[in-house]
Write a structure and sequence with these properties.
single chain, about 425 residues, alpha+beta, 3 domains, seven-stranded mixed sheet, five-stranded mixed sheet, 6 helices, about 10% helix
């Protein structure tokens, strides 16, 4: 549950007002990669350019996505009677080291309106080299907006700061009597004991802060000399290794803390996935630059501003961010046709098809703005080793076209049609 990154990471960008001319549209920011619009007869698509989302003019005759919109009626989808009950596709948590299944680990507090206490931490050698308070407030708002959008409106995360310091008129800074250098926070220190550090940091908090009343605690390291670092802790009785360093509640003067993190600002969305939601890492521990999601999920990319800025449909389903009727479950051999709507659009349409191969393996297809994404979920694989792996034909940079067929673990997915943000997909599950 640890992530160390050395490079600087870019925070979320808020949506801006749409430009009123094609000239301004070509240089303005946009909020969702892959989205399109037309201004004064000129088409634009939202692209990631130098880590910034901007509107890019689409050359005449070229599609704005890797798929094309066919003429005529959309394909007829298979009836609900062709699918199994969604309960059959809910892979089990806690029977294996992987916890990305059902049920979810127990949670203390509000699942829909969680509060995170932000504690600015200053070490003896870091001084006041952090961002200004207003910049931090703006960043926290962006993180709240991010989770509200990703949860399709079902998670309203609020950030609460430490009490106001009378002298500075800003949140109280927790000053600890040890140095960032000695704690291995300046540079890379893979072997440093972050659990012990978090325990010591929380031991300095006053009882009046009442840490145990919050759903999660953020020890914010906001000195620009500190390496980009994120470590999260999530305690739950159901975890196979309840006495593991990452799974035990951490004591504080005001009570036990069951969810917490030590992080720099840019990694909050990723670390919140650990501490609040119980997600696990989807990048390669042996080679952190290798992202098993291939750009589609921030548990692999590490931060917002890195490619898709999103979570997989699997993550959203296990979190209850859309409902069982929006999932097609396939368990038998045969061919079925499915319509999958844009994953990030809040509505009651289908969001994913799950092909259950066995008790620990499922193949999933979802759609991001007319781009089909296919991946396998492996419940017998732990974080850092590829519990979710995106098919090489459906990466963030490479995507199949209408008419193409992608095969994953023996299951074939033929893209029949893409329009209005969603796609129709024919799934062929071979006999076992």
């Amino acid at each position: 549950m640890k992530r160390l990154l050395v490079s600087a990471l870019v925070a979320l960008s808020l949506p801006l007002v749409a430009p009123t001319s094609s000239a301004s549209a070509a240089t303005s920011s946009c909020s969702k990669v892959g989205s399109t619009k037309t201004v004064s007869g000129t088409k634009f698509t939202c692209r990631l350019v130098s880590k910034k989302r901007v509107w890019v003019k689409v050359a005449a005759g070229k599609s704005t996505t890797s798929t094309t919109v066919p003429k005529g009626p959309a394909p007829t989808v298979s009836p609900d009677t062709a699918f199994a009950s969604t309960s059959e596709c809910k892979l089990k948590s806690f029977e294996t080291p992987n916890t990305l299944g059902f049920p979810r680990p127990s949670f203390r507090g509000s699942w829909t309106n969680p509060r995170a206490l932000v504690i600015p931490v200053q070490f003896s050698d870091t001084g006041s080299n952090g961002r200004n308070y207003q910049e931090m407030v703006d960043m926290m708002k962006k993180q709240s907006d991010f989770y509200r959008a990703q949860s399709l409106g079902r998670l309203n995360l609020s950030f609460v700061w430490t009490p106001t310091d009378v002298a500075t008129k800003k949140p109280t800074i927790l000053k600890v009597p040890y140095s960032a250098v000695d704690e291995g926070l300046v540079g890379i220190c893979d072997k440093c004991d972050r659990t012990e550090l978090m325990t010591r940091i929380l031991s300095h908090t006053p009882v009046s802060w009442d840490l145990s009343s919050y759903e999660t605690i953020i020890a914010m390291l906001d000195d620009r000399r500190i390496s980009v670092v994120g470590v999260a802790f999530r305690a739950a009785a159901e975890y196979p290794n309840v006495n593991g360093a990452w799974n035990k509640p951490i004591p504080s003067p005001s009570g036990l803390v069951y969810s917490s993190m030590i992080t720099t600002p840019s990694l909050i969305p990723h670390e919140m996935g650990h501490s609040l939601l119980g997600f696990i890492d989807l990048y390669d521990f042996s080679a952190p630059a290798r992202d098993f999601t291939k750009g589609w999920d921030i548990m692999g990319t590490g931060s917002t501003g890195q490619q898709s800025d999103s979570f997989f449909a699997w993550h959203k389903w296990i979190s209850g961010w859309f409902d069982d009727p929006q999932v097609d479950c396939v368990t038998k051999a045969g061919t079925t046709v499915h319509y999958l709507d844009d994953l990030d659009t809040a509505n009651s349409l289908n969001k994913m098809v799950v092909v259950r191969k066995n008790a620990t393996t499922a193949i999933v297809a979802e759609v991001r703005t007319e781009r089909v994404v296919i991946y396998r979920v492996l419940m017998d694989v732990w974080g850092g080793s590829g519990p979710i792996i995106t098919n090489d034909a459906t990466t963030f940079k490479v995507n199949p076209k209408v008419g193409d067929t992608v095969t994953e673990s023996g299951v074939s997915f033929k893209i029949l049609d893409c329009r209005s943000g969603g796609c129709s997909v024919e799934v062929t599950n071979p006999a076992a």
